[in-house]
Every structure is written in C-alpha cells, then in structure tokens.
Hints:
Layout: H1 2-14, H2 16-35, H3 40-78, H4 92-161, H5 168-208, E1 217-220, H6 221-231, H7 233-239, E2 242-245, E3 251-254, H8 256-272, E4 278-283, E5 290-295, H9 315-321, H10 328-338, E6 342-348, E7 352-358
Parallel strand pairs: 2-4
Antiparallel strand pairs: 1-3, 4-5, 5-7, 6-7
Helix pairs in contact: 1-3, 2-3, 4-5, 5-10, 6-8, 8-10
Amino acid sequence: xxxxxxxxxxxxxxxxxxxxxxxxxxxxxxxxxxxxxxxxxxxxxxxxxxxxxxxxxxxxxxxxxxxxxxxxxxxxxxxxxxxxxxxxxxxxxxxxxxxxxxxxxxxxxxxxxxxxxxxxxxxxxxxxxxxxxxxxxxxxxxxxxxxxxxxxxxxxxxxxxxxxxxxxxxxxxxxxxxxxxxxxxxxxxxxxxxxxxxxxxxxxxxxxxxxxxxxxxxxxxxxxxxxxxxxxxxxxxxxxxxxxxxxxxxxxxxxxxxxxxxxxxxxxxxxxxxxxxxxxxxxxxxxxxxxxxxxxxxxxxxxxxxxxxxxxxxxxxxxxxxxxxxxxxxxxxxxxxxxxxxxxxxxxxxxxxxxxxxxxxxxxxxx
Length: 367
C-alpha cells in the first residue's frame, strides 16, 4: 500500500502542470462568463463533464504508468551483465534516456573487461613469479644445509686430528666454525620466513581469484595439524618453546590444503609473539568441534581485538614489531569463512592468546 501511494504521488507530481492549466482555463471561462452576465451554470456543467472525462483518462494513464513502473522494478532485480529489453518509450525523452543507459552500459562493460583482463594478467604474472622464486629459495636452502654439514664435519675432524695440538689457533678456528654455523642457522631461519611470505602471496592471489581450488572431504584433524607442527618444529627448538599437544581424535569436513595454511599462519603468529613458555594445541572441552591454539606470548591489547581480522590492521604489536603486514589473520578469516568454519580470538595482554577455530559446517554431500 505504501508503494502504491508513493507511485500515485509520483504520477500526480508528473502531471501537476496539466492539472494547473486545466484549473486556470476553467477559472478564465468562469470569469469571462461572469463579466458578460452569461449563466455560469453552463460553465460549471462543462467543467464537471471535463473533470469526469479527465479522471477517466487519468485513471487509464495511471494504470499504464503503474504497469511500466512494475516492469522496471522487475528489471532492476533481474538485470545481470546484459541489459534487458526496456518497455516501449512513450515519448522522445524516454527514448533518449534509454539510449543514454545503453551507452553507459556499453562503457561499463568495456571498463569491466579491461579490469578483468588486467587482473588476469596480474594473477598470471605473480603466480608465475611465486613458482619461479621457489627454485632459488630451495637452492639456497640446500647450499646452507650443505654448509652446515661441512662445518660440523670440519669441526669434528679438527678435534680428532690431534687432541694435544688444541692451542689458541685451534680454538680460534673452532670459534669461527661455530660462528659460521650460527650464521648459517640464522640464514636458514630467515629463508624459512621468506618461503612463508612467498606462500602467503600465492594464497592471497588464489583467494582473490573467483575460482579457488577447493576439495571438500572428510579428513583427520590430527594429521592436518601435525603437518603444520612438523613444518615449525625447528622454530620451536630454536626458540625453546614447549609444545603441549593433545591427540586430536576428530574428523573434519574441510579442504586440507587451505586448513593447513590457516593453522600454519596461526602457529607462525604464536611463535612470533611468544618469547618463552609454551604453545598448546587441543580440542575445546565446552565447544564441540572447536580447535584451540593457545600461547603464553605477549598477548593483544583489548582495543585491538575487534579489528585483528581487518585487512592491513597490525595493531600495537605490529607497530612495535615493524615487520607485521596485517594480512595473515585477514587471510585466515577469509579462508575459514569460505570453508564454512569460524574463528575467534581471546587474549590477555602479557599473558597470552587463545585462538578458537570452529570446524563444524553445513551438511554437505561428501564424495
């Protein structure tokens, strides 16, 4: 009813000029008849007949107006890429408007095509770049690992050569070898981080693409989490962070590759901001099908918590660290949403952070 009244007022507003002209003409006729002492009743009768005819005509015109409005309302809801066929134009102005819409729509399609083409080229380039950059990274890793092995072997051989000859020069050599070993280990750690950033770029590009390669099946949650833990095993050892891991006797309907990536990001954050203590991984006792990753790190400020999943938001910790991108948690949230999972974070400043991943999802047919 409200919509009908709105259309009626719109119709009256459109034809108000014609109504005013009719009223002015009627008044002029009445005044002229009055000045010439002619019977005004004739004018009044003519006006009544004219008003009646005008109402009938206006009614039919309004019905046509209302019908066209409903057609356009329907077209607004169903319009996609191509323009639908407009209702027939009643006059030249309406036809001009329709032609103008067609011109604007053509320009819009041209812009969309150029943007899609540009985005496709960018995706192809960066995807190729990510895969290409992995080759020198792998080569550097092999070289550093080989160097570490050679250093350990050399140090052992020097010691076995002649234990009585361990004078100042031998001690200096051993110190240099040890220093080189530490440098190589640090380079390996930085190389590992580089690999993670490269992988993040690739996953970000895949998420921005309309066609993500999701493979939804039932997986063992324990195996998925252990993949991520194994990847960060050296980081746990290097930082002397204790891992409290409970066997996760649960199955989950998800995409293995994407969920592994999310858990890797959460472990990376936990290790990054935990300088001592432990990281615990377990199933929540109160919430069903909820994985918990808890650390004893520096925590997150209370005012930052509502915004941690925003793209580019780094918060107080990120500003202090100077290296945070604000992309990791944003990607986690976006990926989990695509998988019909949920994520929430609880944290106390100076005491640690607890991340909860809700792994329940809508019922789907599993292949």
